[in-house]
Amino acid sequence: MNKLDCITVGDVTIDWFLQIADENMGIEARDDLISIRSGGKILVDKSSFCTGGNAFNVAVGLSRLGLNTSICAEMGDDSFSQIITKTLLNEKIDTSLIIQSRAETSFAVGLQVKKDRTLFVHHVIREHNFSFSNISAKWIYLSSIGEHWRNAYEKTIKFASENNTMIAFNPGSLQLKDLRFVRDIIAKSSIVFLNEDEACLITENKNNNDMNKIINQILDYGPKSISITSGNKGSYYANKNGDRFSIQPFPCIIVEKTGAGDSYASGFLSAIIKNNSPRDAMRWGSINAASVIEKIGAQEGLMTQKNIEDSLSMHHEFQAKEIKL
Predict the structure, then answer these.
(1) Taking the CB of residue 95, how many other CB atoms lie within 10 A of it?
(2) DSSP secondary structure code for residue 12 in this structure
(3) pLDDT by residue for the chain (325 residues), tens digit each?
(4) Contact (Cβ atoms closer than 8 angstroms) between residue 268 and residue 285
(5) Beta bridge mates, 111
(6) What CATH number is given to the structural domain containing 74?
(7) 256 CA to centre of own chain
(8) Residue 32 maps to a domain
(9) For residue 44, what are the β-bridge partners?
(10) Spatial distance between the Cα atoms of 115 and 137, rounded to a whole number of angstroms
(11) DSSP characters over 130-178
């Protein structure tokens, strides 16, 4: 039986990022709106072709940090699938749980305008008939899956329960439409990874003005711990034992933000699997995320353990702080 540190469960995609120069006359960006002239021709300054998907990004992050990792996902049989397979092999990720079906590969096109990106996402409808036979893992990272996701989620939770496997949970947008189901999985999770908007949605708070209330509500659902990322405000961590920490973002030059949450999660979870403290895990996650958003795409900037340790040795002052919520 193949024994793993972690199995990630979710989607694999191809991401194509188009960088549009600020001075391009065919597109206008103001406030939180992008305006494109209908029927026009938009000149692209640069383009980048990358592999992506939440489970894929986290699997690459964990593997680069030295963990024995597998990914459970379904992909098509087109030419894009060959790129995905090559990346998985290059990143030393176990592919025994990959399902290949006669369909196209899911993809996203990102428009990068004025240091922000807008994604156009195409999820191919799949059955997600996953099987976890002849494999075991210390952890499962359960993340975003497209349509027909419920069966895959139920199989994953059943596998984790029967094999004493700890669950790290990061729900996607489709899952967040069923809050009762999501809260049930949160109750079974060792750690829940959310961004601020997701935390507000799950707790049905209209804004993030009272993070104390939001954190306590999520802990009341029953997880052992939670991690909430909050953009330029950094991140929060809390557990049922009463520990509460926050950390500021690690300094970086923002190029493109895709994969920031996935890279934080992979850094944090790697540190925990390697028996580091939650405070150190927050440092690993923040440094990993900073590296990713300095690059285009969700995977290029993912760090090795040596990369992170070198950054920590140069920035002793970068610490998570205890907070009272």
Answers:
(1) 13
(2) -
(3) 568 999 999 999 999 988 887 666 567 777 778 888 788 788 888 888 899 999 999 999 999 999 999 999 988 888 889 999 999 999 999 999 998 887 888 888 888 887 677 888 888 887 778 888 889 999 999 999 988 889 899 999 999 999 999 999 999 999 999 999 999 999 999 999 999 999 999 999 887 778 889 999 999 999 999 999 998 999 999 999 999 999 999 999 998 889 999 999 999 999 999 999 999 999 999 999 999 999 999 999 999 999 999 999 999 999 999 987 5
(4) yes
(5) 18, 118
(6) 3.40.1190.20
(7) 15
(8) no
(9) none
(10) 39
(11) ---TTEEEEEEEE----SSHHHHHHHHHHHHHHTT-EEEE---TTGGG-
Q: Which of 19, 104, 13, 15 has the alpha carbon at shortest distance from 297?
A: 15
Q: Does 36 reside within a domain?
A: no
Range of the domain at 307: 2-25+43-322
- Whether residue 160 lies inside any domain: the answer is yes
| Spacing of C-alpha 230 from chain mean position | 14
The tally of domains found in the chain comes to 1
In one-letter notation, the amino acid at residue 298 is A
Contact (Cβ atoms closer than 8 angstroms) between residue 141 and residue 158: no
User: Partners of 52 in the beta sheet?
Assistant: 13
Length of the chain: 325
Whether 310 is covered by a domain: the verdict is yes
Strand stretches in the chain, DSSP E: 2-9, 13-20, 27-30, 33-36, 46-52, 69-72, 74-75, 99-100, 107-113, 116-122, 135-142, 166-169, 191-195, 225-229, 235-239, 244-247, 321-322
Model pTM score: 0.93
Q: Please check whether residue 9 is in contact with residue 140, taking contact to mean a CB–CB distance below 8 angstroms.
A: yes
